[in-house]
From TrEMBL:
It is a multi-pass membrane protein. The keyword Membrane applies. GO terms for cellular component: plasma membrane. It is found in: Cell membrane. This is Probable membrane transporter protein. Its main location: membrane. It comes from Comamonas koreensis.
Length: 248
């Protein structure tokens, strides 16, 4: 009984916090959820539980503006490659030793957070997108399938395309939505998704949405830049903890 109470309290707290991060920064729900849940369960199970709240919150973010059509036409090769890479990469998630999955997840968190903290802003010329978009999508898909984390290298790539603020938020929502659906497909194909996990995933939607709402209130009162820096430092610490398990 106590174990059950602890488990549901952990789920609620995880998705409430992850939703708050997404409400402030426009991203981070699957990253935070995978990082925290990955500390107490296999990454394949954590990835299954985050599917529904991730999908719902990303669709909400995706339809927050009117640039969807243009973004799909511009990014479709990246999106297709994300699906292919995720379905292929997800074969690794249920088969890897949990310790090494945690190492891969922790490493992905560290790389992304350090990049976001210290890398100079990039700008990619429009003609290069034809070649870079499918490559970035494929790499992002493989990383997503193997770790359940959607961010690398799609997030810095989208940030370098010169999109305005609203377009970037929608582009992130589009990329994350496609990644979520592709991850669900990959887990199903590899027999790593269970019906009871769908129930747990659905139960996590409410705290995730509540967290997003609270995050939007916080965003209006503090500097998003300062919050983002604290969030990225938190990801580095979390990533080090997960990655260090391989040598403990």
């Amino acid at each position: 009984m106590n174990d059950s109470i602890f488990f549901y309290a952990l789920l609620t707290a995880t998705f409430l916090f992850a939703g708050m991060v997404k409400g402030v920064t426009g991203m981070g729900l699957p990253t935070v959820a995978m990082g925290l849940l990955g500390m107490v369960m296999p990454p394949s199970m954590a990835a299954s539980i985050l599917l529904v709240p991730s999908f719902v919150t990303n669709v909400w973010q995706l339809f927050s503006g009117g640039a969807i059509g243009g973004l799909v036409r511009r990014l479709w090769t990246m999106l297709v490659a994300i699906v292919l890479g995720t379905v292929g990469g997800s074969a690794l998630l249920p088969r890897m030793d949990p310790t090494w999955s945690g190492f891969a997840l922790g490493s992905a968190l560290i790389v992304y957070a350090l990049y976001a903290l210290f890398a100079p802003a990039l700008s990619i010329p429009r003609p290069l997108e034809k070649w870079l978009s499918p490559l970035v999508g494929l790499i992002t898909g493989v990383v997503t399938g193997a770790t359940g984390v959607f961010v690398m290298p799609a997030v810095p790539y989208l940030g370098a395309l010169g999109l305005d603020k609203d377009e970037l938020v929608q582009a992130l929502g589009l990329s994350f939505t496609v990644s979520t659906v592709a991850l669900a497909l990959g887990l199903l194909v590899n027999d790593a998704f269970r019906l009871n996990q769908l129930g747990l995933s659905s139960l996590s939607v409410l705290p995730a949405l509540l967290g997003m709402w609270l995050g939007s209130l916080i965003r209006a009162r503090i500097s998003p830049k300062r919050f983002r820096q604290c969030f990225l430092i938190f990801l580095v610490v979390l990533g080090v903890e997960l990655a260090s398990r391989v040598v403990i």
